[in-house]
Design brief:
With 129 residues, the chain is of the alpha+beta class. The protein contains 3 helices and 6 strands. The radius of gyration is 15 Å and the shape is globular.
Length: 129
C-alpha cells in the first residue's frame, strides 16, 4: 500500500469566509469544487506538497515556546510553507486571521508566524531557508 495524498478536511461553519481566506488571501489555488444536496459545498485547494509531522509532547511544548512563548496549539495545527513570511503575514491579517505570534526566527532557521485563522484553524506560516 502507498499513500498518494494527504488531505486535511476542515469543517468550516463560515465556509465562504474560510474559502476567501485560504484561496484569496493566502493564494491557495482551487483544484476542485463540488456542490451537493441541501446546499452542501466543498472546495479542494492545492497546498503544494503535503507531509504529516508527528511530534511528541516535549517537541510540541518546544515549538510553541520558540514561536509563541507559551503552549497555545490545539491537537492539530496547520503549517503552510510560504515564499515570504512577512508578506504572507500581512495577507493573513488582512484576510481576517487573528495574530497569535509575529514572524519569529526559529532555532531551525525558519521564519514562523502563528495565527488563529478562519475555519477555526490554528495556523503557522513558515518561510524556510
Amino acid at each position: 500500500m502507498t499513500v498518494r495524498q494527504l488531505r486535511l478536511v476542515v469543517h468550516a461553519s463560515d465556509y465562504e469566509g474560510a474559502l476567501a481566506f485560504f484561496r484569496d488571501s493566502l493564494g491557495m489555488p482551487q483544484a476542485e469544487a463540488f456542490s451537493g444536496p441541501g446546499g452542501a459545498e466543498v472546495t479542494i485547494l492545492d497546498a503544494g506538497r503535503a507531509t504529516l509531522e508527528l511530534c511528541n509532547d516535549a517537541q510540541i511544548d518546544y515549538i510553541d515556546e520558540v514561536e509563541v512563548g507559551s503552549r497555545v496549539a490545539p491537537h492539530f495545527r496547520v503549517a503552510l510553507e510560504v515564499d515570504d513570511c512577512e508578506a504572507a503575514t500581512a495577507a493573513a491579517l488582512e484576510g481576517g486571521a487573528m495574530p497569535v505570534a509575529p514572524p519569529t526566527l526559529t532555532p531551525w532557521q525558519s521564519l514562523n508566524a502563528r495565527f488563529d485563522a478562519p475555519g477555526e484553524v490554528h495556523l503557522t506560516l513558515f518561510q524556510g531557508d
